[in-house]
Amino acid sequence: MAQNLSNKYFVKRTAGGSWEDVTTKFAGIKILSIDGMNELGDAQNVYTAQWVNSQVEDYHLTGGSVIRTNVDISVTFVAGQRYGAANTQSAHDAFVNYMCNQGDLYVKSAYTGKYAHVVCLKGYKPTTQKLHRGSNSYILGTITLHTLDKPSNS
Q: Is residue 138 domain-resident?
C-alpha cells in the first residue's frame, strides 16, 4: 500500500489563491514525486570564448548577475480506486485536465519546501495503464511542467 501522501503536494490556480492538497482536491490521485525544483537552467547572459592559442577563456557577464533559463519539472502521479477514486479513468482525466489544459498554475512540495509557477507546454502520455481490474486498476503518469519563474521557498 502506498504511503499516505496527504499534505505533501499542493496546487493553486492563482498567485493569491489558497493552496489545496492534491489528495483532497482530486479523490483517487496521489502525487508520487515532483522532480526538478532544485535544478538550475543554462546561463543566458554570459559570453565565453576560448581561442586556439590560449588556455584562458574570454568572459563577459551582461548585467549584475547570471540570468538562467527556466527549467522543466516532472510531476509523477498515480490514479486509482485504491487511492479513493470512484472511477480510475475519470480521476485521471480530471487531474490531467487541471494540470495541462487550464493555463498556468502553481505547484508546491512539502518535501523541498518550494513552490513554482508553471504551465504545461509538452504533450502527456501515461506511463502505465491497468484498467478494468477493480480495486487494482490504476494509471501511472508523469506530466512535464515548464517553470515560468525560478522555484521559490515557501
A: yes
**CB neighbour list of residue 145: distance below 8 Å, 6 or more residues apart:** 72, 73, 74, 75, 99, 107, 116, 118, 119, 120
The total domain count for the chain is: 1
Question: 78 is written with which cell numbers?
Answer: 498515480
Question: What are residue 60's phi and psi, to 5 degrees?
Answer: -145, 130
Q: Which of 59, 41, 55, 46 is nearest to 147 (CA)?
A: 41
Domain-embedded: residue 93: yes
CATH assignment of the domain containing 123 = 2.40.30.200
pLDDT, averaged in runs of 10, over the chain (154 residues): 70 96 95 96 96 94 95 97 93 98 97 96 96 90 97 89
Q: What are the residue ranges of helices labelled H in the chain?
A: 22-25, 88-100
> What is the CB neighbour count within 10 angstroms for residue 77?
25
Q: What's the Cα-to-Cα distance from 50 to each of 3, 53, 54, 55, 102, rounded to whole Å? A: 52, 9, 7, 7, 46
Domain assignment of residue 51, yes or no? no
